[in-house]
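The following block was generated as part of the benchmark described in Methods. Ligand: N-(iminomethyl)-L-glutamic acid.
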Amino acid sequence: MTTRVIVNIAELTTNDAAFGDGTPSGRIVDAAMVLDDHHVLWVGSNADAPDADERIDAGDCAVIPGFVDSHTHLVFAGERSDEFEARMAGQRYDGGGIARSVAATRAATRDQLRDATQRRVDALRASGVTTLEIKSGYELTLEGETRLVQIASEWSDDVTFLGAHVVPTEFSHDRDAYVELVGGAMLASCAPASKWADVFCDVGAFSVDEARWILLRAREAGLGLRVHGNQLGDSGGVALAVELGAASVDHCSHVHDRDVDALGASSTVATLLPGAEFSTKSPYPSARRLLDAGVTVALATDCNPGTSYVTNMGVVIALAVREMGMTVDEAMWAASRGGALALGRDDVGRLSPGARAHVVLLEAPRSAHVAYRVGGPLVREVLVD
Ligand code: NIG
Ligand code: FE
């Protein structure tokens, strides 16, 4: 096992309040850190840096934990930029375009889907993402969804079965049969390659009762639970996620005070996806309101062909700071440690002893540049293991 010491770090964000300035960012100025092949061994002051087999000079740049993108729909085919243009001209998003991605994804070969996914993963990585969740949801047949979770597992340890994305057109006259398929044979086929199950519980997708039934079947199959909730309206998805103890409820664009209170009293993470509000020209929810109620907030890209074809976590962070009332430090934390908590993980999203060696060296002296220089190429180097 080789040990490496990184010296001359202008600002190290550990995301562990036991280190540095004692804030949630756990920030150490003039820092150094020691890694072995897979883990962080030591963090501290540059002046106290121990020896190691190899020495890396950070040249006074800022170092942060790799971002944890806890919500993506990366495996899809097809083209929907015309919907984005129509929304910018005033058309409302209602989820109807999902059927277009389903048709194109069904028609694509496994190699075409793998190549497209690889390109999206590469783009996310270039923005500093080192851990990602990937959902299925663009085939909506037993064989197709199974293929998607298998493809997703090539890039992710956090694969989510989203057979309950929408009811496909061939079942539009018998939605009960589709719900039964999702929570029955489709789930059984997808569970071996999945860690999580998710349901789009919203107007035009699945009702609270349908979502509850599917999620309870998924829990019996050993999967963790996540919910797309309250994106398009006051759908009851947030309350359902809290009721079931889901790891995360995502979007939360339309939340009632009672939802905020319920989230604040729960361990369910609220994952906000400002790329979706941006790309659907919708009002941004207030992260401040959630944070002030004691809710754990994560930020993710929601990279998908319909509502958020965003592959840059820095842009997500900048939107959250500019439009959702987060401080830069809160947003940086939410896109790393918050994302890890949304995936029930303590090994990523932080850089303190025991964490995975997922290290991002920025082309900047302070991590705030990620929001400040929005969209710029801020990542000098990404070290993964
Ligand atoms: O997270 N809300 C549901 N699913 C995606 C959008 C899917 C699509 O339009 O293709 C989302 O926003
Ligand atoms: Fe989504």
